[in-house]
Each structure stands twice: as structure tokens, then as C-alpha cells.
Amino acid sequence: MYDVVIIGGGPCGLATGLALQEKGMSYVIIEKEAIVNSIVNCPLDMRFYSTSDRLEIGNIPFLSQEVRPTRTELLKYYRLVTERQAINIKCFQQVNRISKDTDSITVHAVDRTGTTIPYQARMIVIATGIFDHPKRIGVDGENMSKVMHYYKEGHSFHGQDVTVVGGKNSAVEAAIDLYRNGARVTLVHRGDTVYKGIKPSLLLDIRNFIEKEKIKFYPSSSVEAITNTTVSVHTSEGLVTIPNDYVFSLIGYQPDTTMLQSIGIEIDSSTLVPTFNPETYETNIENVFLAGVVTGGTTNRVYIEDGRFHGMKIAEEIERRLQ
Hints:
Elements: E1 2-7, H1 11-22, E2 27-30, H2 37-40, H3 71-84, E3 89-90, E4 94-100, E5 105-110, E6 116-126, E7 147-148, E8 161-165, H4 169-180, E9 184-188, H5 200-211, E10 216-218, E11 222-226, E12 230-235, E13 238-243, E14 246-249, H6 258-262, E15 288-290, H7 304-307, H8 310-322
Parallel strand pairs: 1-2, 1-6, 2-3, 6-15, 7-14, 8-9, 8-14, 9-10
Antiparallel strand pairs: 4-5, 5-6, 11-12, 12-13
Helix pairs in contact: 1-8, 4-5
Cofactor: FAD
Protein name: Thioredoxin reductase
GO molecular function, one term: oxidoreductase activity
């Protein structure tokens, strides 16, 4: 019996574990893949827009070579924190069911061997994030293996016709990197521009590449269909079919609400924001709390910078109840 089971081993889940640990409460974190797996899935050479101090957890300093850290530096930081603080985390265990009775909650997880492991606790914190569940375009051909929702690096796509769908940082960054690695890049965005709301470090390059037609850009457009060799794009001038070898659909991510709804947590149907007390982060289900990006649904209003502090408030409330 633990005081708390935390579901999700991202930065906000780790921060919650550290907050509980500091108050002397027993806990375990269950993570279905590696620690901070959302960062593992980031591009290999990515440099974060957040400064290193805004990504720290547990009051443990994070010093990067430059003000804004790279993916490699951030992964190393979270590994070191996990190891040195002896965070109690079980990786590669998939939670498939949560059951609740009067006095406790049981989280049922399955490990890589297929063995079911029950974890019993007085309370649980769900810190599952959103990055494991990409938004779908909803067109024919989207389920083909050549369509990907995460971008790592561009070398493998040298000489290939690649379509990038999206207009935010991840899509623009991927389009730039693919072009620099020798791909023939087409960028499709439903908005009329990609020059607003992106990192300043990307703006000069993407504007230059689009204006010089090094990257073909279809604004106010949407993908109509994907085949083995083409992508059909609905543009303001009509339907255009372009040669295609690979597609990166980088239109954003959303929380998987299945687990939340299975235990009765109420979800706003339009934003997927779950019901919770903003002071304690407890949901409408007693003794079930939320931490991190999952609290923002699809609004994109909650990031690591904010979510890393949720665990402190949760730990304070749980400590009060257990006294």
C-alpha cells in the first residue's frame, strides 16, 4: 500500500514524486515507456525555447551550455535527477485499469512480459501528458506506414518528396531541417501564414525558404488524400496532387481521455479539459488528482514550465489529508 500512485513519468510526474518524497510520503510512478518519453520523441537536434531554469524540477539546478537547452542536455538532466534523488519509478509498464473501493485505489499495470502488477494506494495522481496521442487529419491513406506523427531527424529523407502538414513550431522546424538534409519539401497549413506565433529563431529561415520557393508552401490548405506515391491537397485554387514519398503530420497532440473517463472524471467535450479544483488539482472523483499538461486538454495553455509546480500543491493537500 502506497500513499500515492502517480501515472506518468514525464517531467510533471517526476516533479510530483519529488514533492511527495520531500514530505516523507510513500509513492510509486508508473510509466509506460522511458522516463520523460515526450522529450525522447523530440527531434534529435532540438533546442528548447524554454530557458533551462524554467525546466528544473525539485529545486535541483539545471545548467545548460547555452540559455536554452538541447534535447540531449534535458534528457541527461532528468536522468540525473531520477538517479540521484532515487525517484521510485517503474518504466515500461502500461496501466490498463484503475479500480476504486472505499479505502483505496488499485492501479493495474502490465509489464513487458505480459504480467499484471497491481499497485494499491490511498490516492492517485494522473500525469499522463498529451504527446502520446497525435491529432488525426482524418483522410484516406493516413494509416499508411509512410505517414508519421513525430519527427526525429532529416538524414534518411535525402532526395525524397516529403510533405509536412502543420504550421506551428514542430512543423516549421521539421520542414527547415528536411530541406537542409536534401529533401524536396512541401509544407501544407490550414492557416494563411506560418510567420506568426513561431520561435523567432525559425522565422528568418522559413520566410527565406518559402519566398525563394526552396520549400513549397500551400497556405489556407488541407490534405484531401494520401496514396503510395502522391498527396492531394485542397488549396484556394483547387485540388493539387503532388509527388510524395513520406508525410509528417505535425498538427498537434491531445490527451487520451479514455482512462480519465473510465473512472468517472468529467471532460469538457470541446476542449478535453478535465474537471478539477485549481487549488488542489483534485478531480471530481475523490482522491484522484491531475498534474501537468493533461490539465490543459487541447488548449495548449499548460506546459512543463507550469505543470512542474502542480505536484507541490497536490503534495500539500495529500499531506493535510493523511495527518
